[in-house]
Amino acid sequence: MKRDVFQAISDPTRRAIIALIALQAMTPNAIASHFETSRQAVSKHLRILTECELVTQDSRGREVYYRLEIDKMKEIDEWLEQYRKIWETRYDQLDEMFARLKKEEE
């Protein structure tokens, strides 16, 4: 089943995992130590993140390390950008309206 990146980030635990491995690659056990859930549950989240290509795994000896694929995060940023522009335009309009009202009061 092909999942998209938005399904991956819809879960708070997966977002927390992304935040953890954004700074450095980590093993599943190291990631699981940050949560009050089973190692298997963390592995399931990692599998979903991997399917969405948000994380990749590297084997180093007997250990597997998960790291964030920053380029894949750009999909999220590009999607948000269209709404960011709308919000900024509306805030600018609001600022102009407040400035005009303030000027009228003076």
Structural commentary:
- The chain has 106 residues and is mainly α.
- The chain has helices spanning 5-9, 12-21, 28-32, 39-51, 70-105; strands spanning 55-60, 63-68.
- It starts with a helix and ends with a helix.
- The longest helix is centred in the last third of the chain and has 36 residues, at 70-105.
- The model has no long low-confidence stretch (mean pLDDT 93).
- The protein has five helices and two strands.
- The protein is elongated and about 70 Å long.
- A hairpin with a 2-residue loop joins strand 1 (55-60) and strand 2 (63-68).
- It has a two-stranded antiparallel sheet with strand order 1-2.
Please describe the structure with a list of short key phrases separated by commas or semicolons.
106 residues; two-stranded antiparallel ribbon; 2 strands; mainly alpha; 5 helices
Low-confidence stretches: none
Largest sheet: 2 strands, antiparallel
Strand content: 5-15%
Helix/strand/pairing category: mainly alpha
Q: Brief overview, please?
A:
With 106 residues, the protein is mainly alpha-helical. 65% of the residues lie in helices and 11% in strands. The chain has 5 helices and 2 strands; from the N terminus they run ααααββα.
